[in-house]
């Protein structure tokens, strides 16, 4: 074995990476747009030595950069990018059908202040320098309802400690979920990782845009909760 072992850390990802067959238009977005929108140096293949990747290298300047973990169909991410053109928004999503949906929305909205990592947020957090991120969003994270699966949730030290590291002091971390037990675990685990609770309630943020999962939750009679922390 070489002195430096570039093998990626053994990391479990339990979600889906592929869904139903992509439409021809979506295949086009992936082949034509993703190449220029994805940040370089995030995957282990691209950057086996895990050299730090600054947000200035991603956006070309020192604008504030926000992170959305698990953007799903991308509606919230595109909404934020359009509403805050002075900011750069990086989204991470391993589910390729979601990535294709986001790319369609990016084209339709014409936003340019976005960067798309079609993979696990942990790979991005590994290489971002400390204090890079000015705001982070975790919207409707996978609920993992069975107790023995709670450790797969995003609100566990494996994700929260790196998130804390890459966020700037004072940066806001927002969590939206419709699962009461997810609220419980969020309120327990996020402060343990160093964040301070700012607000928890049923009132959404002023600039919130309801996501596909929230719409599904509402149709099925579940109640959205919005939790805000500060790094
Ligand atoms: C329940 S969906 C919610 C999607 C969207 N935020 C919404 O509200 O409609 C959760 C998403 O998080 C993604 N996800 C899970 N673990 C992730 C990780 N480690 N990094 C990035 N995305 C992740 C999943 O692939 C899934 O698409």
Automatic annotation (TrEMBL):
Its EC number is 2.1.1.33. One of its GO terms (cellular component) is tRNA methyltransferase complex. Residues 1-30 are annotated as: Disordered. Substrate binds at residues 146, 178, 211-214. Coiled coil: none annotated. The keyword S-adenosyl-L-methionine applies. One of its GO terms (molecular function) is tRNA (guanine(46)-N7)-methyltransferase activity. Pfam families: Methyltransf_4 (PF02390). S-adenosyl-L-methionine binds at residues 68, 93, 120, 142. Pathway: tRNA modification; N(7)-methylguanine-tRNA biosynthesis. It catalyses: guanosine(46) in tRNA + S-adenosyl-L-methionine = N(7)-methylguanosine(46) in tRNA + S-adenosyl-L-homocysteine. The keyword Transferase applies. InterPro entries: SAM-dependent_MTases_sf (IPR029063), tRNA_(Gua-N-7)_MeTrfase_Trmb (IPR003358), tRNA_methyltr_TrmB_bact (IPR055361). Keywords: Methyltransferase, S-adenosyl-L-methionine, Transferase, tRNA processing. Catalyzes the formation of N(7)-methylguanine at position 46 (m7G46) in tRNA. Belongs to the class I-like SAM-binding methyltransferase superfamily. TrmB family. This is tRNA (guanine-N(7)-)-methyltransferase.
């Amino acid at each position: 074995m070489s002195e430096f072992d570039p093998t990626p850390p053994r990391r479990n990802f339990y979600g889906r990476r592929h869904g139903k067959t992509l439409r021809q238009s979506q295949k086009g977005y992936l082949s034509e747009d993703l190449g220029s929108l994805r940040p370089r140096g995030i995957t282990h293949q691209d950057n086996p030595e895990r050299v730090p990747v600054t947000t200035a290298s991603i956006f070309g300047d020192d604008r504030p950069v926000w992170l959305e973990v698990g953007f799903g169909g991308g509606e919230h991410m595109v909404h934020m990018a359009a509403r805050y053109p002075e900011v750069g928004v990086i989204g991470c999503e391993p589910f390729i059908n979601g990535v294709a949906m986001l790319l369609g929305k990016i084209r339709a909205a014409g936003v340019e202040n976005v960067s798309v990592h079609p993979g696990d947020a942990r790979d991005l957090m590994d290489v971002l320098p400390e204090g890079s991120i000015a705001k982070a969003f975790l919207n409707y994270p996978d609920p993992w309802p069975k107790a023995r699966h709670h450790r797969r949730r995003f609100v566990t030290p494996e994700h929260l400690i790196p998130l804390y590291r890459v966020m700037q002091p004072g940066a806001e971390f927002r969590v939206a979920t419709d699962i009461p037990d997810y609220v419980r675990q969020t309120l327990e685990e996020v402060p343990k990782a160093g964040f301070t609770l700012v607000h928890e309630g049923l009132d959404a943020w002023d600039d919130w845009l309801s996501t596909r999962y929230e719409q599904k939750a509402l149709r099925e009679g579940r109640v959205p909760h919005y939790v805000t922390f500060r790094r």
